[in-house]
Amino acid sequence: MLIRNTNAKVINLDKLTYAGNPNNIKELRGEKRHRFVKGDIRDRKLVDSLVRKVEAVVNFAAESHVDRSIQNPTIFVETNVLGVQVLLEACRRFGVRFQQISTDEVYGSRLEGSFTETDSLAPSSPYSASKAAADLLVNAYHVTYGLNVTVTRSTNNYGPFQYPEKLIPRLITNALRGKPLPIYGSGENVRDWIFVEDNCRAIQVVLENGDRGQVYNVGAANQRKNLEIAREILSRLSLPDSMVKFVADRPGHDFRYSLDCMKIHRLGWKPEVSFEMGIQKTIDWYTANRWWWRRLLA
Question: Which end of the chain has a smaller Cβ tally under 10 Å, C or N?
Fold first, then answer.
């Protein structure tokens, strides 16, 4: 946003949980148009003090790792549902535009075809259920209070700075350390992968041009099996496929996600980074920035 809009000013509210890292924004130190605030979106007083100063709120804040939601669903409901309600209520009181960052996982699994924005929600994990609940709250605030809202539901993101519990950074960092690459079940589960910068551009397009009360799917048509991802990374690092290690499957593991993205295409957005380009950029970043992730895996 700061690069693409020279008039923009950004207040960055972040709790700095285990997945938060001040090093992610170190290049913004000294940038007068950026203000960092450490805090929790469930803190009504803090949220009110910030929201009354802005034109729009974009909510990226979420507990987002499915495995952790299976182990401890409570924090997912508290942050992903109650936290969103706190933000929505502040936006309602101060007349502020609200955009929710959601996920393709709210639709559940689909063996064939692609989900459109009007399809029913059928989440499978505590994580995706909490995100679906937030989406419904956002819609309710639009219908009941007339709040100007939009929602983007994206496929799996990947790229620099991603916490190494996620699939692609976990596979890359394990490969770079000579450790096995864990793959759930048979590795046949299918995901669509979008490079993080493409998703951020989509979010900005919807923020600026999306219609009130509307949901927009965001995908890149890069469907890959998890096993294919692992083998691609090993091949690009000149390492053997034998480093793949199959592990017990995750409970309630969705088999396949796929989104129909024609609606956001009509706003003029399309992905610019191919999977081949994006995965190489990501491998290069984790290879060159071991200092960033090594301490996270200690």
Answer: C
CA dihedral 24, 30, 31, 32 (to 10 degrees): 140
Neighbours of 296 (CB within 10 A): 14
Domains detected in the chain: 10-297 (3.40.50.720)
Tokens of 288: 């060159």
Query: What confidence tier does 5 reach under pLDDT thresholds 50, 70, 90?
Result: confident
- pTM here is 0.96
Question: Mind giving me the DSSP string for 80-132?
Answer: IIIHHHHHHHHHHHHT-EEEEEEEGGGG---SSS-B-TTSPP---SHHHHHHH
User: Quick check: is 105 catalytic?
Assistant: yes
User: What are 109's two structure tokens?
Assistant: 């699994």
Query: In the annotation, is 112 catalytic?
Result: no
Q: Which two tokens stand for residue 216?
A: 């927009």
Residues in the chain: 298
Angle between helices 167-176 and 275-288 in degrees, nearest 10: 50
Residue 181: what are its φ and ψ, rounded to 5°?
Answer: -100, 105
Task: Write out pLDDT tens, residues 124-135.
Answer: 999 999 999 999
Query: In terms of Cα–Cα distance, which of 99, 189, 195, 197 is closest to 153?
Result: 99
40, 104, 192, 254: which is the annotated catalytic residue? 104
Rg (CA), the chain: 19
Is residue 163 annotated as part of the catalytic site, yes or no? no
From the list 14, 63, 105, 232, the catalytic residue is 105
Distance CA 298, CA 17 (A): 17
